[in-house]
Amino acid sequence: MILAAIIFIAAVCGLALFIKRLAKKELRDLSCADDYISNLLCTIMLFLTTYSLLTLQFGAAYYVIMALLFVWMPLGKIKHVLYFFFARYHLGFFYGWRGTWPPKKAIQYDK
């Protein structure tokens, strides 16, 4: 129940951001179709997740939206959700291999 309430608050915030994007001219000028699609998919997904948690029924709409979201993920601006873990692994492997991550403590010499 608490998780559903938190997810519902996130869904309301996503809807508020979508309405703000539509209402303000400055944001409309900066936004492209990708922004609207990503925002709508994430907001609908959050609302359907809340509904599914409260009723314990996962309908076809939930699975369709989740499938669309996962198909859209590598194509849209929300690709950071997917690529974050790969980027962290690559950076850790690359810099860790070179001995530069984490930074070594400076050696102090006596005078």
Quick synopsis:
This protein has 5 helices and no strands.
Give me the secondary-structure topology.
Elements: H1 2-23, H2 25-30, H3 33-55, H4 60-72, H5 79-98
Description of the molecule:
- It is a single chain.
- The chain is mostly helical and 111 residues long.
- The protein has 5 helices and no strands.
- The protein is elongated.
- The N and C termini lie far apart (64 Å).
- 8% of the residues are buried.
- The mean pLDDT is 87.
Identify the notable features of this structure and list them briefly.
single chain; 111 residues; mainly alpha; elongated
What's the average pLDDT? 87
| N- to C-terminal distance | 64 Å
Q: How many helical stretches?
A: 5
Topology as H/E string?
HHHHH
Question: How large, in whole angstroms, is the Cα Rg?
Answer: 21 Å
Q: How would you classify the quaternary structure?
A: single chain
Please estimate the helix content: over 70%
Unreliable spans = none
The assigned structural class equals: mainly alpha
